[in-house]
Structures
1.
Amino acid sequence: MKPGETILGFDLGNHLFFVLSVEVAGLVAVANFTDSSFPSSDRTCVAHPGEHPFLTKESCVYYRKAEMVALAPLSRAREEGELKQHQPLSPALLRRIQDGALISRFTARDVQAAVRLTLEVSEGR
């Protein structure tokens, strides 16, 4: 799985999860969209309907729950149909989300490190 790929079925809430990083030691960083109307929502990165076909209302990235997950079982679950893929994030939306991961005070340090490495790799540093 690569940055920008999307996953449905990762949780019971039917949230759209997406890959934020390249593989780092067998792990990838993932996060998801959630409803932005909750008072406690982290509004570091807000997405609107039309930015991705899954979005039907204003949503924000739930950086508080972004995490590193093992790539092998995730890929296997996708291949076996336990997880469904949706349309990938556009490069511009992915970059906004990754930039937000680096500045949100809620993003775990290991997720930030994986995102930072991914951006360095994509920029050829």
2.
Amino acid sequence: MIIPALDVLQNQIVRLYQGKYDTAQFYPYELGARLQAYANSGAGKLHLVDLEGARDPSKKQWQHIQTATKALNVPYQVGGGIRSEHDVADWLEAGANQVVIGSMAVEKREQVQAWIEKFGAEHFVIALDVNKTENGWAPATHGWLSESEFGLFELVDFYVALGVIDFLCTDISKDGTMTGPSFALYEDLINHNNQIKVQASGGVSSLDDIAKLKKLGVGGVILGKSLLDGAFNVEEALACYQNA
């Protein structure tokens, strides 16, 4: 599946380089119109991130994002600033198909487990952002500033046991770089458990990248900067993924 993505900062569409806020590149597109354009192009799912809320939950842009998603007729997943059961309920009631849980899924597993048991595993995407270290893939939290005490596969196994199958994994060194995705990361994840649906994110810069990811067996390819910068369009990405 091809999943166009839009990050929102200061109520504007933006892309960061390796998650660093001081690298923000703003785009002159209206959020609702851009989402609808992606949907009209055939995308079966969309991905949204509230970067303001991720950095400071007291500055959530949810009203702006929810206004933009109100007219959407395709499923969407959303993350950024989701810190409580009320936050999860708020997004699901607003029409989100799934909520994306990142740092909380690493640091407060029991709390996230309670949400999963209440709302259903199908409504959750677990986002694990990693750095490659001597000891393997190490999840990072808090805007990628802190390293987790748990390994990547340990966290995957924990959530799989709760019924979660959707995992969004990003190699931090690749995010926003347009230098090609981390094929090794996705190969390792799929070799570890080929029943999960891995969403590949970060670095995708060409249709060739999409074809390689599909052949590896990923469940979805998240496209942000490549679509915004016109490396290819949604229709081309969909055709490539379907034919790979």
3.
Amino acid sequence: MPWDFWFIFVVLGVILPWRGRTRIKKLLEKPSVGRMERLSLYASTIAFQWFMVALVGWRVWAHRFTAAELALAVPRGTRVIAAAIIGTVAFVGLQWFNLRRMGRSSRAASKFLKALGERIFPQTKLELLSYIALAMTAGICEEFLYRGFAIAAFLRAGLPVWGSIVLSASLFGLAHLYQGRGGFAGTLLLGTLFGAATIGYGSLLPVVAWHAGVDLVAGVAGPRYLKAAAKPEPVVSH
């Protein structure tokens, strides 16, 4: 594997998780988070993700990856579009149900997510608009980085298909380690499913729609169901 790909994977698997956990820990240590802090968090995340896409796009172009390898080609027919629409509806429903379930739970993990949600989910219309831009960015950028690029790079390096899917999903899980062990496990499972779908459909279109839908629901339903925040002191250790 080329040295520049190794560098990208170090960023995705080490630097990004460390950066995310550090930022979230600081937010949890605060009694509250204001509008400008949330807007700054959204804006900096959007900028960083598009920067990573530009960097990776430059390097895959230099190594002559094809659109098909990166799952950027959209196959003809309605199969992929139908999968994107039907899957989005299903994932949106599941995410909504899961957030409502966590809002009613008194478990420590749910208390942690309530404290986290109070600090990062939008509270005003302006914040919601910014969060929508963040959700769309995450759907496009993260799927390109973790499904399009990562799987293609691992396959070129000689890894088997399922090994490439699981390894890319592990990187995806590490990027969400700031959500705690449950967040890592959930995104690992989701990343594996998204990776299998990317290989199966030969396109990122369905998983981009699914991912954006899940994040959008979090921003809309999260403030509604995860509003009884726990004190930050006991949850920082999770």
